[in-house]
Write a structure and sequence with these properties.
- The chain is built from ten helices and 21 strands.
- It is α+β, with helices and mostly antiparallel strands and 464 residues long.
- The protein folds into two domains: 223 residues, Sandwich (Immunoglobulin-like), CATH 2.60.40; 128 residues, Neutral Protease Domain 2 (Neutral Protease, domain 2, Orthogonal Bundle), CATH 1.10.390.10.
- The strands form five sheets. It has an eight-stranded mixed sheet, with no helix packed on it.
- Helix 5 packs across helix 7 and helix 6 packs across helix 7.
- The structure holds arginine and zinc ion.
- The site of zinc ion has 5 residues, from helix 5.
Length: 464
């Protein structure tokens, strides 16, 4: 009786205080995490209010029916008091969501799985989200007309699973923006005869009752877009190169073209290590499918993914991304030149070291292109539109900016900058502003005009 009276009185006080606009709840209930990491080019990608430390994914895929069943366990930490949060998830049916073992309410809206908490999670505390889901995954079509995400290959060949920039959400619930990096355990069950290849080290593999299960572990932090779980009837090769386990999986139709190039992988890794610093990961390899209609390769962490047998330049490019993109990751998509410009510049250096044109000559050749050329269609430091992310300027003009930098500061400072960049941001993130600041501090030069011209000026820059 007394209690109820007291509660009524308390409620009245709150109601009155509310009317006066001064109500403060007695206990923090938290607010919902923002529905995106705030990237202007992909506003919905990523999730505010939490950091995912680790993903444990258990998947089963049927190439014939293209059906995927999944269970995802996310070990997360709240970065604010949370009353709920969103995860990225596109398509697929969600059967059940639990948070710390308690079933919670969820909703679907666009590319989001919206989760409401019964009890708030407080800022800084760890919690576990488990999602049971399944269905037929569909890739997302990007603004440039390419698609990414879980892509079933023609017939019952398997699947090409690439997530840049937003396809991770097509196969697992995630914090899909590159600002969040996590470790991964990915276990995939496929019909016997198929191999499922993910990132990192293959922990176990077993076959029983016509099904094969592959357990992969990635121990270095990884952005969701770099995760893969590609499936095929691959020809697998496993070997050690110095202390590095190498695992390559190649569609038999690409084997004749791929093998000679993939044989160069250890040599490419050690050559790049001499320029960029120690190889950042504890495994390496490649996945080669047979579907060039996909039209691109992706630097999936430790194990780049190719739509067809790569040429040597492409191998050099995707391997360079292991430092630039995978270990050192961008925080905003507009900084994409930090990935693509650097990986392209690695190709230039490789070619020069193997009898091809010098980077200086390539810079001059490209500079000779008319002002109407695509090369000058946007400044690489600020693509402005999602459709431009993987356009020519991000790659070629990004590489030109690096050659301009090299010519301005000299080889010693230039290679010092590259090594410090990969060392200081290893397993983390880097921004263009940080790269410019590092370049200035290593070289002792004012490089603002150089970066303004090569990264940020619209149209063809006038030679300085
Ligand atoms: N980062 C990849 C590369 O240059 C390109 C990925 C393109 N993605 C896409 N959806 N088109 O190696
Ligand atoms: Zn690239």
């Amino acid at each position: 009786m007394t209690n109820r009276l007291f509660l009524t009185a308390a409620a009245t006080v709150f109601a009155v205080a509310g009317l006066l606009g001064a109500a403060a709840p007695a206990t923090p209930v938290g607010t919902k995490g923002a529905a995106g990491a705030g990237d202007p080019l992909l506003p919905l990608s990523g999730d505010g209010g939490l950091h995912v430390r680790h993903y444990a994914l258990q998947l089963a895929y049927q190439p014939k029916t293209q059906h995927l069943d999944g269970s995802a366990v996310l070990s997360a930490t709240a970065t604010q008091d949370l009353s709920g949060f969103d995860l990225d998830l596109s398509g697929l049916d969600v059967h059940r969501v639990t948070v710390d073992g308690q079933v919670v309410a969820f909703d679907r809206a666009g590319p989001k799985l919206e989760i409401t908490l019964d009890r708030p999670v407080t800022d800084g505390s760890d919690f576990t989200v488990a999602v049971d889901y399944g269905g037929t995954p569909h890739p997302v079509v990007d603004a440039d007309g390419t698609s990414d995400g879980w892509t079933a290959l023609p017939g019952d060949q398997g699947a090409f699973v690439a997530g840049e920039p937003q396809g991770a959400m097509t196969w697992f619930p995630c914090d899909g923006h590159p600002t969040d990096k996590s470790t991964y355990d990915v276990t995939v069950t496929v019909p016997q005869g198929y191999t499922a290849v993910s990132n990192g080290v293959l922990r176990t593999q077993h076959t029983a009752a016509g099904r094969s299960t592959f357990r992969w572990h990635e121990s270095a932090p990884m952005a969701a877009y770099l995760a893969t779980a590609s499936v095929g009837r691959f020809d697998v090769r496993e070997y050690w190169s110095r202390r590095l386990p190498v695992y390559t999986a190649v569609d038999p139709a690409e084997k004749a073209d791929a093998d000679g190039v993939l044989d160069q992988l250890p040599a490419v890794i050690s050559w790049e290590s001499s320029l960029f610093g120690p190889y950042p990961f504890d495994s390496a390899g490649a996945i080669v499918v047979h579907d060039k209609a996909i039209g691109y390769a992706l630097e999936t962490q430790t194990r780049p993914l190719y739509d067809e047998a790569p040429d040597l330049d492409t191998l050099v490019h995707e391997t360079a991304h292991q430092w630039f993109g995978d270990s050192v990751t961008i925080t905003q998509w507009k900084d994409i030149w930090l990935n693509e410009g650097f990986a392209t510049y690695a190709e230039w250096m490789w070619d020069a070291a193997h009898g091809g044109a010098s980077p200086h000559a390539r810079l001059a050749q490209l500079y000779a292109r008319p002002a109407t050329d695509q090369l000058w269609s946007y400044p690489p430091g600020d693509p402005g539109q999602l459709a431009r992310l993987f356009g020519v300027p991000s790659y070629a003009r990004g590489a030109m900016a690096l050659q301009e930098l090299r010519e301005a500061v000299g080889d010693q400072a230039f290679f010092g900058i590259l090594k410090r960049w990969t060392a200081e941001h290893r397993y983390g993130h880097g921004t263009t502003a940080q790269f410019a600041a590092l370049s200035a501090s290593v070289s002792g030069k004012n490089l603002d005009p150089l970066f303004a011209t090569w990264l940020y000026s619209a149209g063809k820059p006038t030679k300085m």
